[in-house]
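tool_call: predict_structure(chain=1)
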Amino acid sequence: MSEENNLEKSKENNELDSAPAAEAASAAPLTPEETIAALEAQIQEHQDQFLRAKAEVENARRRSMEEVAKAHKFAIEGFAENLLPVMDSLNAALLDGGEDLAKMKEGIELTLKQLIGALEKGRVLEINPVGEKFDPHRHQAIAMVPAEQEANTVVTVLQKGYLIADRVLRPALVTVSQPK
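tool_result:
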């Protein structure tokens, strides 16, 4: 769309530029010196327009590079903000001098829930593939074991895997059922 507008504008400019020349040609013929001077003025104007357009493009490129650099630099900011309450809970647990193991376990469970929530807000999701078909893109098989399930089905998960925005961050370590 903008290319069409630019073409229309350049046609209008060419028509405007040629209009005075046409009027001048019909009024009185120009001397070669006058023609050269008019053409040199037109060249100078076009050169100025080119330099301005070039500078504008360079400025836009520089601004976009700065924006990309800032996006990379601060991309983790939201994720870090989600982790701060988990850090606070862990620090509070370390400062607690109580010896009640039940309370300590409850605190650890609550902190784990906070951590899971922070990871989910950061789009980090757990892979728990028990009963699913083995997928080498999402699972890493450690062993094959005899099982009642269909061949190549995940039997147990030894270490959970994680996805971040549908991309494998860490594959799940699994055992897989053996073909009978």
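agent: Strands lie at 124-127, 139-145, 154-159, 161-164, 167-170, 172-177. Proceeding to next step.
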